[in-house]
Amino acid sequence: MRSGYYGAMHRIGRLVLSAALTLQAAPLVANDSTAERAAGGLVLRQSDAIDMLSEDLYVSTELIRVDYVFRNQSDVDVTTLVAFPMPDRDLEQDRYGDVAYPSGFETLVDGAPVDLEVEIRAFLGETEHTALLRELGVPLASEHGAWEIGRALDALPRDARDRLIEAGLAETTEYDAGEGLERHLEPLWTVRETWFWEQTFPAGEDVRIRHAYAPGAGGGFNAMLADADFRESEFGRQMIADYCIDANVMAGIERLHREAGEGDATPIILDRAFTYILTTGGNWRSPIGEFRLVVDKGAPENIVSFCGEGVRRISPTEFEVRHTDWRPDRDLKVIVFSPIPGY
Fold it and tell me: CATH classification of 21-129+189-339 is 2.60.40.3680, yes or no?
């Protein structure tokens, strides 16, 4: 059963976030929109020793917080790397629009903070070019994105720039930054960043892990779903299906649009969306024992829509889903619509 839920908001530009916390045995974008990249939870690649006894997941546009209880069901301690791969970051895409990425990660194991290490690699398609970029002294990634990396490329000697262009890792562009037409080198590779730590699961004991971060919800200002032509478009139909937007949600969006445009006001409705990777929960030894999801729409006047079974309202802004012995078969996509006052 698919259900949509609401309480009051409208469209900006869309998102999808994607990354999954991985336990390993060894070492669209418009000018008025922000795209998202999805993140998710801890993954163990078909573990035959460790169960996820419970998962308590809270999601909102500002915060994702998940509490796990794991148990090593074997009679020996299991030590493994726990890794959180970030969503791929396409530096070429970063040049053309805002992309919202997960940030502010915090991890606690049995209440104690964990220091994470990071591995950064560079790819073009499925071919890795990390070694070449390091050889040339090029930063693989930057917190300021493609712009700052491009400035580093411009500073390279001619032969190094030519090697990058020949490898397809960079291209020359021309633009006027206020001082006349200039030629610059722009990065084209994709950054794959993985945060990880080593974790021991003692035999027969429970381990409690909390992971929290800002989801990087993307969105935009628009009224697209209030438009019948958009709803019938391929993008509109996909959006409705992804977030299980039902008749009640649609009516709420249209109402918001009408109210926002009363008098001389310009209808301004913000939508923010994010994706949480739930299907990684199917990789543990057995189904998730007890699963609880709380979706918080942020304010009573907001509208929220997502796909779920047995959803019940538990507060003016929160909706709850519970499952027992559950293997998720789809990821969680949430969209929140909000009126913007003062326009």
Answer: yes
